[in-house]
Amino acid sequence: MDRTTLLGRIRQIEVRSRKRLTSKMLGNFQSISRGRGLIFDTVRPYEMGDNVRDVDWNVTARTGELHIKQYVEDRQHQVMLLVDVSQSMGINTTIHSRTDAVAEVAATIAWSVIANKDAVGLITFAEHTVEVVRPANHQLQLDYLLKHLLLTDVPNPSAKTSLEGALNTFVRLITTPSFIFILSDFQFDLADSHDLLRYLARFHDIVAIQFADPLELHPIPKTAIVQVKDSESGSNRLIDTSNPIFRRQPTTVSAQAFCKSLGIDWLTLSLHEDYINQFLKFIQIRSERAQK
Question: Does any domain span residue 174?
Answer without folding.
Answer: yes
